[in-house]
Amino acid sequence: MSFIDQLRQAQQQNQSLLCVGLDPEPSRFPAGVARNAEGIHDFCVAVAEATHDLACAFKPQIAYFAAHRAEGQLERLIARLRQIAPQVPVILDAKRGDIGSTAEQYAREAFERYGADAVTLSPFMGFDSVAPYLKYEGKGAFLLCRTSNPGGDDLQNQRLADVPGQPRLYEHLARLAQGPWNTNGQLGLVVGATYPAEIERVRALAPTLPLLIPGVGAQGGDALATVRAGWREAGPIVVNSSRAILYASGGADFATAARAAAQATRDQLNAARP
Ligand SMILES: O=C(O)c1cc(=O)[nH]c(=O)n1[C@@H]1O[C@H](COP(=O)(O)O)[C@@H](O)[C@H]1O
Prior knowledge:
The protein has helices at residues 3-13, 37-51, 62-66, 71-84, 100-113, 131-134, 152-156, 169-178, 196-205, 223-230, 243-246, 254-272, and strands at residues 18-22, 57-60, 91-96, 118-121, 140-146, 187-191, 211-214, 237-241. With 274 residues, it is an alpha/beta fold. It has a single domain, classed as Alpha-Beta Barrel (TIM Barrel), CATH 3.20.20. α2 packs parallel to α4, α2 (37-51) packs across α12 and α9 (196-205) runs parallel beside α10. The two termini are 28 Å apart. Orotidine-5'-monophosphate binds at residues 21, 23, 61, 93, 95, 120, 147-148, 190, 192, 214-215, 217-219, 240-244.
């Protein structure tokens, strides 16, 4: 099954556009959860168990694991997610980008070692840095397009003088991803919830691509404006929230609080659908 079909199925099953981001930060764990690699695993499992029927995807951010020597725990976590929520795809947030031969190793890491269903990529080294991921049939690749951070303006919002129409870099990228780069229908784009006008522009240029949209919750993005700008019948959106769910409570009730926060966000996103 293609990644986009898997995503649609999970969205249908759980009636959800919400991606639960797994960004485990040991210093924020409640008392009773070990502040080490095993605690990282256990914390994420508890959150996943509490939210599995509310999410259309899980997105572990690899740095939060690697920084604490918890790559083995990330492997085990993803295997465990398959048991907890077999229909819910896993997007490995790795933001990789490198020359082809190195990208082959990163692709192997994401899809063979971790068994992710999709990965986030930085496309700024060009198509040959993306192509190795597309050899994995059925897997998805989300290219950073208009990111949620203010510094995204520094490059992504600049105009390309040599391209007809002088599009902004993110607009040019959206066109490439919808068109010539999307050789097997595996590409999606990352657009920040903090910039709804740009989401709308990306959606106009890439009408059928899945959009991964982080930035609601801790970064203050507007859920209603996000869904209105990005959601189309032909083009799914996956709206990520990490910290607002993971740390909804700093106490022993963190999993229950995570569920309540996920439910509220899911309902808000659904209410905004036309
Ligand atoms: O690729 C991403 O997921 C991503 C892209 C982007 O433009 N902005 C962004 O915040 N992210 C990631 O999305 C998550 C957002 O986390 P919260 O702000 O806690 O919801 C983090 O894991 C970020 O690394």
